[in-house]
Amino acid sequence: MPQHTLPRAICAHCDGFPTVTITTGTRTSDGQRQTITAHCPACHATTPARAHTRIGA
Ligand SMILES: [Zn+2]
């Protein structure tokens, strides 16, 4: 039985990068970098991600 692989739809809004981690520059009390995770407002990170984009140092 042949397996049909459907082409995965890439969100046009985020271009396949629905989740973005942004480093705020501040550190938590644990000494970890405080980050903000933002999801694409169009697809709400429900589309397959090509990569996890990280912004900031
Ligand atoms: Zn999206």
Overall radius of gyration: 16 Å
Order of helices and strands: EEE
Distance between the termini: 48 Å
Count all strands and give the number.
3
| Total separate domains | 1
* Total of helices: 0
The unique ligands bound to this protein are: zinc ion
Strand-residue fraction?
A: 25-35%
- The order of strands across the largest sheet is 2-1-3
Low-confidence stretches: none
Can you walk through the features of this model?
- By secondary structure, this protein is mostly beta strands.
- The protein has one domain.
- Helix content is 0%, strand content 33%.
- The protein has no helices and three strands.
- It has strands at residues 19-27, 33-39, 53-55.
- A three-stranded mixed beta sheet has the order 2-1-3, with no helix packed on it.
- A hairpin with a 5-residue loop joins strand 1 and strand 2.
- The chain is elongated, with a radius of gyration of 16 Å.
- Bound molecules: zinc ion.
- Residues 11, 13-14, 18, 40, 42-43, 47 line the site of zinc ion.
- Zinc ion (ZN) binds at residues 11, 13-14, 18, 40, 42-43, 47.
Which properties best describe this structure?
single chain; about 55 residues; mainly beta; 3-stranded mixed sheet; about 0% helix; elongated; binds zinc ion
Outline of this structure?
The chain is mainly beta.
Topology, element by element:
Blueprint: E1 19-27, E2 33-39, E3 53-55
Parallel strand pairs: 1-3
Antiparallel strand pairs: 1-2
The structure holds zinc ion.
